[in-house]
Amino acid sequence: MTDGTSSPVRLARHCLGLLLHTLWPVACPVCGRLGQVLCEECLSSLLTRQIPRCLSCGGPAPCIDHPRSAPILPGAVYGGAIREIIHRLKYGRTRALGPILGRGLAGLHPRPFLDILVPVPLHLQSPRGYNQAEAIALGLGRAWRIPVRGLARWSCDVPARTRLSRSERRELRVEDFVVAPDVRGLRVGLVDDVCTTGTTLSRLASACTAEGARVEAAFVVAHVPG
User: Which of 26, 76, 156, 207 counts the most CB atoms within 10 A of its CB?
Assistant: First the structure.
């Protein structure tokens, strides 16, 4: 069985892949294509529109309890290949995955009416030195031509969310975030890599609202249902 591509074309693509791999030794983590951080075909297969979640409580949206709440818009269910890719972005230092994931996420939705994108800030004691949420936001921002601004920070050293249970995650306070007054009067979209309970995004949204912003939506690469 063939894909309809002639042998000379396939050979040329293979040679090009080898050349790219020599110059830039990477391969798509899904299909193994050489010279690709994450190929377009695999990116498209990994991301699809999910049921929105309520930014106020993390439940399915539209939400009966919070009918006016902005939505959380995920691009995948957290697990399998997308989990591996997010781990490579966060812990494997493959920073180039961030903008690629952001671009793929942008392709799932029409351009929103936003003034800025604000990534969830990096934890104060994070050893990574770079913010994966900001990298994803940059991909979204470039695709939508919306500026990305890091106007939020943690006010104290809270534990990394990945180490906490669902009940512990919900103990996060609005006061744990500090948002710059520059957000006043702006339509804001929040960005993160993974949403589990939705508490981090909800508290950050409340902190933005307290500074006079209007949070219209939150965009995440993947979510953990339930």
Answer: 76
Whole-model pTM: value is: 0.86
| Domain ranges, ordered by start, for the chain | 1-36, 49-223
Instruction: Calculate helix-pair angle for 80-90, 97-106, nearest 10 degrees.
Output: 130
Q: Which helix (H) or strand (E) holds 208?
A: helix 199-210
- The CATH code belonging to domain 49-223 is 3.40.50
Rounded (5°) CA angle 84-89-91: 85
**Angle in degrees, CA 219, 119, 198, rounded to 5:** 50
Q: Which amino acid is at 18?
A: L
Beginning with the edge strand found earlier in the chain, give each strand of the sheet holding 187-195 in spatial order.
Answer: 53-54, 71-74, 214-223, 187-195, 116-119
- Provide φ and ψ at 74, rounded to 5°: -85, 160
d(Cα 125, Cα 146) in Å, to the nearest integer?
Answer: 29
| Token digits of residue 85 | 């890719």
Question: DSSP assignment of 1-29, as one string?
Answer: ---S--HHHHHHHHHHHHHHHHHS--B-T
DSSP SS3 for 168: helix
CB proximity list for 168: less than 8 A, separation 6 or greater: 159
Write out pLDDT tens, residues 106-128: 999 999 999 999 999 998 888 77
